[in-house]
Amino acid sequence: MADSATSTPRLDVLVIGGGPAGRAVAGECAGRGLRTALVDPQPDRPFTATYGCWAAELPADLPASVVAARARGRAVAHRTHALGWQYVVFDVPALRTHLDERLADVVVHAARATHSPGPGRVALEGGGDLTASVVIDAAGRWQPLGGRRPGRPGRPARAEAEQTAYGVVVPAEVAAPLVPPGEALFMDWRPDHGEGGWPTFLYGIPVGGGEVLLEETSLARRPGLPVPVLRRRLLARLARHGIRVPPDARTETVRFPVDHPRHDSPGVLGFGAAAPLVHPATGFSLAAALELAGPVADAVAAHLPAGPEAALAAAREIVWPRTARAVHGFRRIGLEALLRMPPDEVPGFFDVFFDLPERQRWAYLTGRDDLSGTVATMGGLFASSGWRLRRRLVVPAVLPPLRANDEPAGPS
Ligand SMILES: Cc1cc2nc3c(=O)[nH]c(=O)nc-3n(C[C@H](O)[C@H](O)[C@H](O)COP(=O)(O)OP(=O)(O)OC[C@H]3O[C@@H](n4cnc5c(N)ncnc54)[C@H](O)[C@@H]3O)c2cc1C
User: Fold this and answer.
1) CA of 242 to the centre of ligand 1 (A)
2) Is residue 214 within 8 Å of residue 188, measured between CB atoms?
3) pTM of the full structure
4) Which residue in 91, 126, 212, 243 has its CB near the most CB atoms, within 10 A?
């Protein structure tokens, strides 16, 4: 249960949110001898999402036990592309155990943060507050301490762009017509679901234990494509490939924003999806959060002797150096280009993207502070595109963000 602030000795670090990002950064801080606490309304609730990332993004200090499956990445647009990289899917309970082992010296409060009434202070629902030299908001899409989260002053009135998906977990042999053994289907844009309208793709990944997750995904839409549409499309797509979903198959629903503004509340560091570390054009954030947790803790530990403001500024410089801010801006332009792209042109765009040299694809997908790599990729995309696609890529850079996408079309 949450302690009242008055009875708690001053903390060095207070982390709001017990998702993977909050647990990782809290554990790293405690590991450096910082007095650390973590606040989450349900700190014992297990993680339920299926998490994955590219193998080369895995932080070196993660034990092999956190990986449930590895497979060669493949993408299908109008053509099939071998990506040249391995994809890993986490053993989510093992990842959770690994992160929790590092929380041994972290005080965990079962409470909900409501806002930050002043520097280093966090108010809790139901009364009381906690104080710390450095406050980290790692509460995901909710950003309880974020000054510009949806509905607050300064936040645009338009709907959020969201990634949505609906998936089923089936035995690997059942999924084999679409996801052969040893492969991870990053994207399959073939319209095998038989519907026109908003473009969606199949994501198909081995999840370990001889099972494969098959997920119909809307990469980004403002607002997100409704999950029932994705479910209908998934079942139609699978039926077209002769895949019958067992009645007791586990299912997964995905919905999260990809265009949160940067967390820039004074006196608080946004971390994880709350930062947002979410790549606006892919939705990935987990690998970046795991990778940055240690450097953030290093920065706080090194600069705290000079005062809380110095520690916060140093940690912020780790999460948002100038290059990362610029890359985030370019990625947001990429998101707007996708949101505005006519549906029938989307697969062609991905053929051009996946034909780019490996280093350019890698830079765009993973290089969150690789400004020159991101610019080179965008230049490469432009150079490889026809005039129509070039216009689609460039025009969104000079337009305000799209207010909303049209309603989804039904079966054609
Ligand atoms: C089904 C699904 C699959 C996904 N797959 C991937 C993937 O494969 N790879 C990837 O990179 N990303 C994936 N994502 C995106 C995902 O959002 C992030 O990767 C990841 O969960 C973000 O971690 P986080 O710790 O930053 O935030 P979250 O996991 O959202 O955790 C936030 C925590 O904050 C707590 N909280 C909320 N409000 C408050 C409050 N007011 N006070 C205190 N605590 C609060 C919540 O209870 C929660 O525990 C997926 C998302 C979903 C939904």
Assistant:
1) 34
2) no
3) 0.94
4) 212
In which region does residue 202 sit, left (phi positive, over 0), alpha (psi from -120 to 50) or beta (all else)? Answer: beta
Compute the distance between CA of residue 38 and CA of residue 46 in angstroms, rounded to an integer. 16
Map 135-204 to HEC letters: EEECCHHHCCCCCCCCCCCCCCCCCCCEEEEEEEEEEHHHHCCCCCCCEEEEEECCCCCCECCCCCEEEE
Atom of ligand 1 nearest to the CA of 24: 25
Task: State the distance from the centre of ligand 1 to the C-alpha of 80, rounded, in angstroms.
Answer: 31
Q: Tens of pLDDT along 322-377?
A: 999 999 999 999 999 999 999 999 999 999 999 999 999 999 999 999 999 999 99
In 218-267, which residue ranges form alpha helices assigned H by DSSP? 227-240
Integer Cα distance of 12 and 1 in angstroms: 20
What gap in Å lies between CA 72 and CA 75, rounded to an integer?
10
Alpha-carbon 177 to chain mean position? 28
**Contact call for residues 277 and 368 (beta carbons, < 8 A):** yes
330: left (phi over 0), alpha (psi -120 to 50) or beta: alpha
Most ligand 1 atoms within 8 A of CB, residue of 28, 142, 319 to mutate? 142
Q: Is 384 helix (H, G, I), strand (E, B) or coil?
A: helix
Kindly tell me the burial class for residue 284, based on how many C-beta atoms sit within 10 Å of its own C-beta (0-12, 13-18, 19 or more): buried
